[in-house]
Amino acid sequence: MPRSRCRTTTVRAKQDGSPVTSADLAGNYILRAACLALFPAMPVVSEEDSRVFEAGKDSDSVLVIDPLDGTKEFIKGRDEFAVNIALVEDGHASAGLIYALARDRLFFSYGAGLAFEQTAGGQRRSLPRPSAPRRHPIALVIRSHLDPRTEALLAALQPCDFEEIGSSLKFALLATAEVDFYLRLAAT
Which superkingdom (predicted)? Predict the structure, then answer.
């Protein structure tokens, strides 16, 4: 996404100090409305609307959305943000999708061993099963959590390449076997 489009986005801080943009809120409105139109009886829980959590906590099935995961990356004009939607049934995720919209990559799963990427042309491909390890594994780290402890561990893991990335996109890249592991020592 061009940096200029991000500059017109309004940014404010949530109660926990993390940023929220007008794009987060607009995406939340659109996704909640679509989910409720498709599944009117199912609660929708969103990172951007905590009051809805109370309505969904006792339900057997809940749709969980994060309309703009990687807000910090979005604000900085990077392409490492994603839309996340999950169906949680009886306390377990049974289906989910990650859409990296700036990269036009859609990843989804709807059961054990059923993980796919859908291309821009509409073709679906199954995500690969784990293969033989690389000679130089590729690790993912979050830019904002690249602290001295993480850097020391990366040095100890040599030879190892690493990429800095934000959002749930890291999990999609793990699923596609484009990278080998995600390293995070900071609290979640």
Answer: Bacteria
Residue 2: the pLDDT is 39
Segment 23-32 shows an average pLDDT of 94
Q: Distance (Å, rounded) from C-alpha 4 to C-alpha 77? A: 8
Give mean pLDDT, residues 172-183.
89
Contact 93, 86 (CB under 8 A): yes
What are the φ/ψ torsions at residue 89 (nearest 5 degrees)? -120, 130
- pLDDT (mean) for 27-43: 93
> Is 166:70 a contact under the CB 8 Å cutoff?
yes
Please report the domains of the chain, with CATH numbers, ordered by start residue: 3-126 (3.30.540.10), 138-182 (no CATH)
Please report the pLDDT score of residue 56 as a whole number. 54
Residue 37 identity (one-letter amino acid): A
Tokens of 49: 């609307």
Q: Where are the alpha helices (DSSP H) in 19-88?
A: 22-38, 51-56, 71-75
> Which letter does DSSP use for residue 57 in this model?
T
Q: Which residues lie below 8 Å from residue 178, measured CB to CB, with a gap of 6+? A: 138
Query: Is pLDDT of 59 > 90?
Result: no
